């Protein structure tokens, strides 16, 4: 570095679409993910989910919950689907690393989060019958 040069530090930030999706979520989820994105670039895939999409996901077996009982169905949404950016659906190790980061940030903030690959919260990922890796929800 030449004396006097200023190294530019670029922090990750949400795209306009991710920001809009996150704004449909519970303020606790917004707080967690606004902190997460400072350190870990990510995309918000979904926040609030309307009836038509919930019904479709149920029919496709992408959800076990019927409208209006899903955490995504409330206003504000108590669930968010997020992935590390760039999104790579085949990289499950990176998703697990990302999820651990989210759960750790939430714990540090005093916010209880349930992850869709550890529904029972026992930190054993091998005892689940339904895996939804991008899914995170607040627990009241």
Automatic annotation (TrEMBL):
Name of the protein described by the UniProt record: Putative peptidase
Organism: viral metagenome
Lineage: unclassified sequences, metagenomes, organismal metagenomes
């Amino acid at each position: 570095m030449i004396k006097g040069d200023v190294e530019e530090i670029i922090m990750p930030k949400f795209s306009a679409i991710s920001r809009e999706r996150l704004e449909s979520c519970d303020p606790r989820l917004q707080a967690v993910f606004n902190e997460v994105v400072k350190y870990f670039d990510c995309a918000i895939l979904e926040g609030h989910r309307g009836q038509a999409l919930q019904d479709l996901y149920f029919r496709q077996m992408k959800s076990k919950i019927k409208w209006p009982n899903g955490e995504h169905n409330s206003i504000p949404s108590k669930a968010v689907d997020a992935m590390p950016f760039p999104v790579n659906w085949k990289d499950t190790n990176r998703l697990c690393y990302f999820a651990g980061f989210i759960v750790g940030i939430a714990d540090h903030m005093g916010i209880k989060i349930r992850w869709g690959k550890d529904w029972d919260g026992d930190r054993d990922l091998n005892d689940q019958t339904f895996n939804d890796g991008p899914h995170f929800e607040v627990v009241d």
